[in-house]
Amino acid sequence: MSKPGIYKRGNIWWIHYTGLDGRQKKESSRSKRFRDAEALLIHRKNEIQKGNQPEVVQVKNHTFRELAERYREFSQYQRGYRNKKSIIKMAEDEFGNLPLKHFTLAFLESYQAKLLASELSEATVNRRICCIKHMFTKAVDWKMASESTMKEVHKVKMFKESLKRDRFLSREEIERLLEACGTDRQQLHLKPIIIFAVNTGCRKSEILRLKWQNVDLEHGFISIHEPKNKEMRMTPINAPLRQLLDGLPREEGIDYVFFNFKTGDRLLDLKRSFPTAVKKAKLKGDVVFHTLRHTFASHLVMSGVDIATVSRLLGHKDLKMTMRYSHLAPNHLSNAVGALAAALMSPSTLESTNAESPKE
Q1: pLDDT tens per residue, range 187-229
Q2: How far apart are CA 199 and CA 239, in angstroms?
Q3: Where is the Core-binding (CB) domain (predicted)?
């Protein structure tokens, strides 16, 4: 396969054309596909016909480690950086000083298969691949990688994640979890946090950032600043929650509602205390802190609260996110139709209809 202005060097197709200054220009398409070079040549000639001298960006031979360092600095103030930081580190350990131009579809698909073979879930593998894809998107912006390399990386298809119902705790499991918190002063912060979580449905980050200035005991509301949606929602204070808040210790100079009662320091995470309590309570299944949020929503639905109200309490921007709990209210569709019948047909209409119906 050949065409004037297109030739091959090794496995890569190159193009040459005449610039506005009358000089011959040679440029790599950075692709092994002929049609990519052909498209680039057409694009360059069109630019020249418009009177524009094509700007050929020379990309240096950067390594993945260099990209990881730049991307780490770029994302350090983003929401969810703590999780992204670990993904970047694992990718950096895997690829090290490998040049970015060596990343191809086949190469990343091989890495993707390796992750799945290590018994990671489809969701976990997808999060890692997604992070790498965004790293290469930024690499093009930073002139560290070519667009053709970025396109190769973005061809990797994500796994279809298996749908499963969200794990939630029963009343008995909640009691076992609270009993497992223990009485050690270093663990005293955990029990009130769990009680708060199952009565509000708040995310862990929302709970650990909560300050007393956002708690209005007089009017019975808590102002929750959502780090995920960057908005604020109002959460009602029920009786168990009020009893909890009234009994929490307060120390001068500490604005946070929940803190380490032993050291007085702000709590940044519950990576050790919560899994320890779950293990001690012998809870089966994949129980993480976010399970408490599912527990809040699930018990509301099972108590007859409508999906729209549950959605508002959770702070969901899309009702579709809350519909995952709809299976817990199997009678909600029949109840809705029954309510419609009661609204449209009066008792007298129903009686006359029954009287006219033929009896077998």
Answers
A1: 678 999 999 999 999 999 899 999 999 999 999 999 998 766 5
A2: 10
A3: 62-140
Helices (H) and strands (E) in the chain, counts: 16, 6
Q: Report the largest interatomic distance among the alpha carbons of the chain, rounded to a whole angstrom.
A: 98
b vs e for 292-310, b when ≥16 Cβ sit within 10 Å of the residue's Cβ? bbbbbbbbbbeeeeebeeb
Residue 99 φ then ψ, to 5°: -60, 145
* Length, in residues, of the chain: 360
Beta strands in the chain, from DSSP E residues, in sequence order: 6-9, 12-18, 24-28, 215-216, 221-226, 231-236
Query: pLDDT tens digit string along 76-130?
Result: 988 778 889 999 999 999 999 999 988 999 999 999 999 999 988 888 999 999 9
Contacts of 24 (CB under 8 A, 6+ apart): 16, 17, 18
Q: Rounded to the nearest 5 degrees, what angle is found at the Cα of 287, between the Cα atoms of 84 and 168?
A: 115
Strands 231-236 and 221-226: antiparallel
What is the Rg, in whole angstroms, of the alpha carbon atoms belonging to the chain?
Answer: 30
Q: List all residues 6 or more positions away from 152 whose beta carbon is below 8 Å from its beta carbon.
A: 103, 104, 105, 108
